[in-house]
Write a structure and sequence with these properties.
The protein is an all-alpha fold. The protein has one domain (about 5-30, about 45-124). Helices cover about 70% and strands about 0% of the residues. It contains four helices and no strands. The protein has helices at about 5-30, 45-60, 70-85, 95-124.
Length: about 120
């Protein structure tokens, strides 16, 4: 029996699904009043940077046709939206602009690495 989708299409679909699962997980964890400690005793900014770096890699692979700046814009908006939602008193969370800065910095740094890797791979 042949594959329903070509291997490349299945891989892209895998990364798209992984992206959406990771995004839902990140937003849920960010909006829980008392989220469980997932990574031990690491700083809040490191958690933000790791989460948004992972989201950026997944989005870059799953949506490889999208311009990198569009991916950056959309993910940075998600980071900003999370911070705005964290200002809702019922959530008992803190809205911190530096969290959004960490998110955006991680997104841009990760996109730079992805772009360099794509160029290197294309030459190869």
């Amino acid at each position: 029996m042949g594959a329903r989708f070509p291997v490349r299409r299945r891989a892209v679909l895998f990364f798209q699904i992984a992206f959406w699962i990771a995004l839902i997980f990140a937003v849920t964890m960010a909006l829980l009043p008392k989220p469980p400690e997932v990574m031990g005793d690491v700083g809040d900014k490191y958690q933000h940077m790791l989460a948004f770096s992972c989201l950026t890699v997944l989005a870059s692979i799953g949506y490889s046709g999208a311009p990198p700046l569009r991916i950056a814009e959309r993910l940075s908006f998600v980071g900003a939206l999370i911070e705005v939602l964290q200002s809702i008193p019922a959530l008992q969370r803190d809205c911190q602009i530096m969290d959004w800065v960490a998110d955006t910095g991680a997104i841009l740094a990760t996109l730079a690495v992805v772009t360099l890797a794509r160029r290197w791979y294309a030459k190869g």
